[in-house]
Design a protein that fits this description.
9 strands; Rossmann fold; single chain; alpha/beta; about 250 residues
């Protein structure tokens, strides 16, 4: 499964392809972005073995390493084309369906960090997938999860217009999304079968609609302060994505 990020600072487009990605099968799509910084900000410690489930072209691995992380980073993707690019940034990248049984080559390993960045909403049984991968997470290890918020103010306005259309170009209503979550339901559903995981952090990244004030009047620092205030006080309204950290007990 490729990387699907919906933050406005990140893109989910096929590398090197001018046309819509919908014409390509999932096994041939390549999703690239700058890495999911708000999610990686939740990562604690500075070393350990990392597994990025739905790693895309390896952008989170690049981001993690740029922050001085010491340890091997591996990934999983459904796309052979993505895996080819991701291996330039990782020790190993498996091409597989994450809802299938884990191969012995993975079951024999143990990871200190497992990342699910904008992949779980694409799966038929996401809570089961989180629980399954928890088997190869070391005690005290971290799970980082990022998913889009279906009830951000942008989506609410879209729904008020009577517009609920899936899109082949990514985003909250990506045409491969099977599940939708809010700030208040994300951990309830996604960690429901992982009794060994304890939620330690839950936050959002997004923005307050400042429009022209942001572009032409307010200093950048003011806009960032207002965004942080909105994310903290009304996460389900101003959060574009939900980011979570859980630790294995």
């Amino acid at each position: 499964m490729g990387k699907y990020l919906m933050d406005e600072q990140e893109t989910s487009v096929p590398a090197g392809l001018p046309g819509p990605q919908a014409s390509l099968p999932l096994s041939e799509r390549v999703y690239t972005n700058l890495g999911n910084a708000p999610l990686i900000n939740l990562l604690s410690g500075g070393s350990g073995h990392v597994l990025d489930v739905g790693c895309g072209a390896g952008d989170n691995a690049t981001l993690i390493k740029s922050r001085g992380w010491s340890g091997e980073v591996c990934g999983i993707t459904y796309s052979a084309a993505e895996a080819e690019r991701a291996r330039a940034h990782m020790k190993e990248c498996w091409v597989m369906d994450v809802e299938a049984d884990l191969p012995k080559s993975l079951l024999d390993l143990s990871f200190d960090v497992i990342i699910f960045s904008h992949i779980l909403e694409h799966l038929r049984y996401p809570a089961g997938v989180v629980a399954k991968f928890s088997q190869i997470l070391s005690k005290g290890g971290q799970v980082l999860i990022a998913i889009p918020n279906i009830l951000s103010y942008r989506m609410r306005l879209q729904f008020l217009r009577g517009d609920f259309r899936y899109s082949p170009e990514g985003g909250v209503l990506d045409d491969t999304h099977l599940h939708f979550y809010t700030y208040f339901t994300a951990d309830e559903y996604l960690l429901s079968e992982s009794t060994d995981l304890k939620l330690t952090n839950k936050a959002v990244s997004g923005s307050v609609p400042l429009c022209l004030l942001r572009r032409h009047i307010f200093p950048t620092a003011w806009s960032k302060t207002i965004d942080a205030w909105g994310e903290r006080n009304w996460p389900n309204l101003f959060g574009n994505q939900i980011v979570m950290r859980a630790v294995k007990q």
